[in-house]
């Protein structure tokens, strides 16, 4: 039983960056801005967060003593979110103001992220860099975490796992139950109509793309400050693209995207567990580990085909809006 | 309403288009092309050239900062970039060698974009093509000229098959090719990983890779490492141009790409064309993998480089999805790739080779948003292809 809880917990943890990335995608795409730059935003967020935490840790020790670990992690998180927002802003400016093709703009940001993180890593994060504060501690929620099984599974995590759940709810509520959400969807489905009723189309797009970037930056923070505690080149390793798949698979809906992300998380957990399983169990050892690794990806393809998975993106997705000349 | 929606969301034309052009079947790009003169060609080149120049100038602060503004070191770093890309012995031929796989994958992406599929699956198709080619290369003894042809054909078929899967899934179930091609990239990776570690492993216990291909299968090298794959790539580029511009099939594929509703209205077989367009795109990527194995690597290790597939996106976009443009931008990317290696070496490791991604990004940005360059240089440049066609890619649609 313990083993199963541990397994599900692992799935939940590895689903976190995927889900956050998918929410970043939903934010911009619901308003009609295609975002394939989540990968780059994630990578940059991870790097900036780690860099900030690293370089702030020692100065902060003088001021806060033992609390410096938490303070520097928190400031690192904010820096990571900020860098994501900045890239979101760049994506917004090129694709809204300069009407660049949004796929190209996204590719530009991915390339830029690979370049800049590589450069900074080489220069400031290798030999001679200050010590890093490590990763966020677990924050068990009082009382709730005492419940058997469920408590450990859901209420004994590092902060970003909670944030993921919180964001699912917030995004769902905002999108479908607030005027702002209605504006977002209107802008994404029929910008001209939205404009006619007085919604500032491009302003909505700017804000949502920037907020989306911030969320993607947070997904990056998970990589460094919640999981590894150090940065390495291209450590996002395709998670941004998987997040895109989760977003489309979840049909541009927060709860759908969460479900899809959990599926990928489950797959990753199977992968990690398979390595130890095959070493002990002779029957399972006959199946190559690659088969376990392939399961989540195969599952996605099959599920998508089986569910009659016609994914319909927001109608105005990918199209710049000219505005009505009056 | 469906086809109206597609039209009305495109940004309003800058000048009122002739009535004929608004007919859904007559897309501007399907008109007979005006033969280019030297003057128009030069004007078209202004934008990319200015973009490249600006991008390289923009690296000065990045590299300067990394080298503490020591100008001798900075000069050495740039010298390394140029030497590695062009001037060192064999540098230019090595640049071409690095460009060849990018030409194939770039063409694959360009063909996909032109025919309305966003094929993120080039890395997987490249890998499968390489795997098929290496197998034919080492396991099936054949006479000289026939052997490479057989191996290349295996690569083409492998890539086409790997591309046809998401094509079929899209045509049959409507599932999105972007998701499925991403998934198939991973599946290709795991499949290759298993094959190279098990049935295709070199019997020598010291290495984890496939056996070397037989000498009969190697592509002929005619200048240092430069192999005849270069001519195959040029041939492929001509083939793509010919297919798209001179054949009925190409016309149909482009129509599906630019306006699926109109294609359906005209009685074209959408499903068949969708499968065919991704399969053709996959075939090109697979051929790229085969050429890389037969011309350069001769054996396949685990974790065989799939970067060529990802670089394909900027290569295709910088080449404005035109075959000749793709060839040129692949050469540029090959040059940057080789140059950046030597730059990192000459700067004593202080300038990471990744810096070159910044150059690629800025070039692409300027080409994608000509308004930026025009504003920067106060130029009145011709509207680029990208602006004329409204949108180069079609998002998820």
Secondary structure: elements and pairs:
The complex is a heterodimer of chains A (326) and B (397).
Chain A lengths: L1 H28 L8 H27 L3 H30 L4 H23 L14 E2 L9 H5 L1 E2 L1 H19 L1 H11 L1 H6 L4 H28 L10 H11 L4 H27 L1 H4 L3 H18 L20
Antiparallel strand pairs in A: 1-2
Chain B lengths: L1 H7 L29 H29 L4 H17 L3 H24 L7 H18 L6 H28 L3 H21 L23 E3 L2 E2 L1 H18 L1 H11 L1 H6 L4 H28 L9 H12 L4 H24 L8 H14 L1 H8 L7 H4 L9
Antiparallel strand pairs in B: 1-2
Helix pairs in contact in B: 2-14, 3-4, 3-13, 4-8, 4-11, 4-12, 4-13, 5-6, 5-7, 5-11, 5-12, 6-7, 6-11, 8-9, 8-13, 12-13, 14-15
Characterization of this structure:
The complex is a heterodimer of chains A (326) and B (397). Chain A is an all-alpha fold. The radius of gyration of chain A is 21 Å and the shape is globular. Chain A starts with a helix and ends in a 20-residue tail after the last helix. In chain A, strands 1-2 form a two-stranded antiparallel ribbon. The model of chain A has no long low-confidence stretch (mean pLDDT 87). In chain A, helix 1 crosses helix 10 (239-249), helix 3 (68-97) runs antiparallel to helix 9 (201-228) and helix 6 crosses helix 7 (179-189). In chain A, 73% of the residues lie in helices and 1% in strands. Chain B is built from 16 helices and two strands. Chain B has helices spanning 2-8, 38-66, 71-87, 91-114, 122-139, 146-173, 177-197, 229-246, 248-258, 260-265, 270-297, 307-318, 323-346, 355-368, 370-377, 385-388, and strands at 221-223, 226-227. Chain B has a two-stranded antiparallel ribbon with strand order 1-2. In chain B, strand 1 (221-223) and strand 2 form a beta hairpin. In chain B, helix 12 (307-318) packs across helix 13 (323-346). Chain B is globular. The model of chain B is unreliable at 1-32 and 385-391 (pLDDT under 50). Classes of the chains: A mainly alpha (326), B mainly alpha (397). Chains A and B meet through helix 4, helix 10 and helix 13 of A and helix 2, helix 6, helix 7, helix 12 and helix 14 of B.
């Amino acid at each position: 039983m313990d083993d199963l809880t541990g397994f599900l917990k692992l799935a939940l943890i590895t689903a976190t960056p995927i889900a956050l990335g998918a929410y970043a995608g939903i934010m911009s795409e619901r308003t009609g801005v295609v975002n394939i730059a989540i990968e780059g935003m994630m990578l940059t967020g991870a790097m900036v967060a780690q860099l900030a935490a690293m370089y702030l840790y020692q100065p902060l020790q003088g001021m806060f003593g033992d609390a410096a670990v938490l303070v520097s992690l928190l400031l690192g998180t904010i820096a990571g979110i900020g860098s994501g927002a900045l890239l979101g802003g760049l994506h917004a400016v090129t694709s809204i103001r300069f009407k660049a093709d949004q796929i190209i703009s996204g590719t530009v940001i991915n390339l830029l992220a690979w370049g800049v993180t590589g450069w900074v890593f080489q220069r400031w994060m290798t030999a001679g860099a200050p010590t890093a504060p490590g990763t966020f501690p677990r924050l068990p929620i009082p009382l709730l975490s005492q419940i058997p099984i469920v408590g450990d599974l859901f209420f004994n995590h590092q902060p970003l796992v909670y944030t993921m759940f919180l964001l699912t709810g917030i995004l769902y509520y905002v999108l479908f139950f607030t005027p702002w959400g209605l504006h977002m969807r209107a802008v994404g489905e029929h910008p001209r109509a939205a404009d006619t009723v007085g919604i500032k189309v491009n302003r909505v797009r700017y804000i949502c793309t920037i907020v989306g970037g911030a969320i993607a930056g947070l997904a990056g923070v998970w990589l460094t400050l919640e999981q590894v505690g150090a940065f390495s080149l291209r450590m996002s390793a395709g998670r941004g693209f998987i997040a895109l798949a989760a977003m489309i698979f979840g049909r541009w809906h927060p709860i759908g995207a969460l479900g899809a992300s959990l599926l990928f998380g489950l797959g990753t957990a199977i992968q990690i567990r398979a390595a130890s399983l095959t070493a002990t169990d002779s029957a399972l050892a006959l199946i190559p580990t690659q088969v376990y690794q392939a399961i989540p990806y195969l599952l996605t393809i099959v599920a998508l085909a089986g569910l009659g998975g016609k994914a319909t993106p927001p109608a105005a997705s990918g199209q710049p809006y000219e505005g009505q000349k009056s | 309403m469906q086809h109206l929606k597609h039209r009305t969301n495109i940004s309003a034309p800058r000048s009122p288009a002739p009535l004929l052009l608004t007919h859904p079947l007559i897309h501007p790009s399907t008109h007979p092309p005006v033969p280019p003169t030297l003057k128009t060609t030069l004007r078209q080149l202004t934008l990319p050239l200015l973009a490249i120049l600006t991008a390289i100038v923009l690296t000065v602060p990045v590299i300067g900062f990394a080298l503490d503004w020591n100008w001798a070191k900075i000069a050495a770093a740039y010298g390394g970039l140029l030497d590695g890309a062009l001037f060192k012995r064999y540098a230019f031929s090595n640049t071409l060698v690095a460009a060849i796989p990018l030409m194939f994958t770039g063409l694959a992406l360009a063909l996909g974009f032109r025919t309305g599929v966003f094929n993120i699956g080039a890395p997987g198709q490249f890998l499968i093509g390489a795997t098929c080619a290496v197998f034919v290369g080492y396991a099936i003894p054949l006479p000289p000229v026939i052997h490479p042809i057989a191996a290349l054909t295996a690569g083409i078929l492998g890539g086409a098959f790997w591309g046809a899967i998401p094509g079929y899934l899209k045509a049959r179930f409507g599932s999105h090719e972007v998701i499925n091609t991403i998934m198939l990239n991973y599946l290709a990776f795991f499949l290759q990983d298993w094959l190279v570690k098990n049935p295709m492993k070199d019997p020598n216990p010291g290495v984890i890779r496939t056996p070397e291909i037989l000498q009969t299968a190697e592509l002929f090298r005619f200048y240092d490492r430069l192999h005849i794959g270069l001519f195959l790539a040029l041939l492929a580029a001509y083939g793509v141009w010919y297919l798209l511009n001179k054949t009925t099939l190409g016309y149909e594929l482009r129509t599906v790409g630019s306006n699926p509703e109109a294609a359906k209205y005209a009685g074209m077989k959408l499903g068949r064309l969708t499968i065919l367009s991704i399969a053709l795109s996959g075939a090109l990527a697979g051929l790229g993998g085969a050429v890389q194995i037969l011309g350069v690597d001769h054996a396949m290790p685990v974790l065989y480089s799939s970067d060529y597939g990802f670089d394909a996106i900027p290569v295709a976009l910088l080449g404005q999805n035109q075959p000749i443009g793709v060839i040129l931008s692949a050469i540029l990317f090959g040059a940057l790739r080789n140059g950046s290696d030597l730059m990192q070496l000459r700067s004593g490791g202080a300038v990471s080779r990744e810096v070159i991604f910044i150059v690629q990004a800025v070039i692409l940005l300027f080409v994608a948003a000509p308004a930026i360059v025009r504003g920067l240089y106060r130029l009145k440049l011709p509207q680029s292809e990208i602006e004329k066609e409204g949108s180069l890619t079609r998002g998820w649609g």
